[in-house]
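Whether sequence alone determines local backbone shape is best considered at the level of individual chains. For completeness, the protein is quoted in full, as a sequence line and a line of structure tokens:
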Amino acid sequence: MCFLLIFGGGFSPLAAEGKPSRAYNQMALEVPTDGGGMLMYSRMWVLNKYLEGGFSVGGGVIDRDFDLTAPGSPTLKGHTQTLVLPYIGPRITAIYHVIGISIGYGIFYADSDFKVEWLGEPRLTGRKSGWGSGFYSPLLVIQFLDPRYNVVYGFGLGGFFGTSFPKLKATSSTSVVTTTENPIDTLTLHLSYSWGPNSGRKSNRDEW
């Protein structure tokens, strides 16, 4: 086994002897810091020696805990539990030697339960469903290449960063709280498994 330290991405699994394949697959489990789990599939094509492009699709559950603040009001504790299905969008990776940057941007449909804890007051609850958009990126990943089986194992830091979603609202019999917090914003533990369509010992990039 050998390993590479990749910032934001990875190198392609090996391709077949002879003409190398230009495509590979990746399955990643993203475990959010506050709970839940997202299963993401990516199909990537090697475009040239330094660039890969493809798409990611997946879904799962993201839990979030966060503080809600407003001028003149006490700090409230917010929690969301969000079913995300699907998340889909393009992904691009730039690589130079063993350093890479990988980022995806997509749309998603989410069903989010929103709860707010307010000291001395009944819990506020709400639910919101709708379409949103956001980034998906492995941020700091260590990858291990196993040339015997033509697979790459990776683990490290990942994340989802939302850019749009309908406002969340929680209510009780006496109060209403709204927020623009995005329910998919989270860092994750990234665990991935990448493989090519053929086995072999030739790098996808040797031909460039």
Notes: The chain has no helices and eleven strands. The chain has one domain: 2-195. Confidence is low (pLDDT under 50) at residues 6-11, 14-18, 198-202.
